[in-house]
């Protein structure tokens, strides 16, 4: 009776949700997936039935990470609100059958459509686009078998009005580019493999009937990202050939991201010369071979630049200051800067300098003062060693950038100069990398009083001060300058890794604990921190960083055993918002206790474990999948046998595929010779976002696509 009376009292004193104003309710409903709003919530009462169909909620429909959506839900959604949809994002919906695309024809008023990662044939694309006369923005994949001759005249008429096109190529082709005569923004992603599944070498020549010329006269933004491989380079040159003949007058962003060596040719040199004469850029990224040793940057003109990427270039700090930021003049418009792998960018010159030499703090200070509004900064994959000058440490200078939202740094750059050593310390964790027994995960091996340990060192360190000054940072990457993942793309797994930088030897648990000051942190990457002894700082992050959604840990502590397992399990118990977890560590034991701790991450959707000589317990994996209902991706590349891996993969698919349509499971021996063949079947969304390790800060301009 007391319980009933208390509940009735709460009802009389409480606020009924339906008593809120329409504006507040609409704001609350904006956080609910559109499929739930239309198919479920609006059926609860008359008021919600009206609000759920408000234009503010139906104007833009985002299905790109709605992993529970299926063909029937899409069909019903299009029937109910198809005419009200102006923007539809289905990027990465790889699990939906190609026939799902047919229902988009009901969206007669569609202006923006993203179908990247969806299965679309030439005929289905033609039928769909023929009905979308208002379409202005389109994103599609071009797969083997695509035939532009199958596009109808009505489809080509729609494409002629498209001003924004994002095209991912899995086969040598122009795709629909020649049909888009009004292009202002062109984004090209080249994912063509050098060999077919049968092992035949592919050619970069376009297929028969692909001789039409792209129309670039109105182009304002050109972006091309190449996966490794010579075929991708051959095909992108065909796209660039037209640009070299006549550079668009309104071009203000020119970006080419190419790994490895991408040699400059006569045609590309003519293109760059034409750009230097005729355009003023706001965003620039070029292959390193096009910049290294050339005076190009001296001749290019910039208007109000917002993005620069000189990743892996040998650009010196002197050239950076003089040619890019005009001798330290005001460059407040720049919001994103990628200097990843630019080993000499903080030194006055690079001719006689070693990569491990100290940086010139005056160059970094000029950069910080001139680009005071930077929101995204990447300094990873280089040795940025601060000198002993007081007040000139890299962390102290970066603390002035109060607007930073994402930051990537090498491990050796965050250590206090006084704490750095010339030779590895004689702590137990630095035994040879090939030795070491597996740690017993059932025993707590880190100090229980985290507050005492935290106060020992880091509150007076420069990195602690930096983390304290960047309170609104959302993405942080601390990556060893010599770190390389065991899973490079299109190549066999790497068996040996390079040793960490000497300056990085003192970076460990206390520096990790300093990260816990970042209250709004959403994404964290830690790789090759050699002095991790217990992982106690991870627990602090789990407790304090309650918005953490993405966590990637690689090669922490000694390589012979996982010294931070107990702390990691304690950390995971507090990560209620964690959606993506990637772990890369030799000898990792994915057993019952680990998966029991991971089960506390109720929002987890994607899990990737990469471990040379690592082990797993099949029963524990199955129990984890059964308890974590949101998990739709499980990738494990371990040291188990092929039979064990295949049996577990089949069991997961058989047990959970029906209720999780987007389920993608890959369990495979890391060092197996067929690993690259298995990787090529992974959906690009997962491969690019989590399975493959890379630095993602300032990887491309912000808001490049919606």
From TrEMBL:
Top-level taxon: Eukaryota
Ranges where the F-box domain occurs: 14-61
PROSITE patterns listed in its UniProt record: FBOX
InterPro entries membership: F-box-like_dom_sf, F-box_dom, FBXL18_F-box, FBXL18_LRR, LRR_dom_sf
Gene Ontology biological process terms from the UniProt entry: SCF-dependent proteasomal ubiquitin-dependent protein catabolic process
Gene3D superfamilies registered for this protein in UniProt: 1.20.1280.50, Ribonuclease Inhibitor
Any one Pfam family match given in the protein's UniProt record, by short name: F-box-like
GO cellular component: SCF ubiquitin ligase complex
PANTHER family: F-BOX AND LEUCINE-RICH REPEAT PROTEIN 18, F-BOX/TPR REPEAT PROTEIN POF3
Protein name (Swiss-Prot/TrEMBL): FXL18 protein
Gene behind the chain: Fbxl18
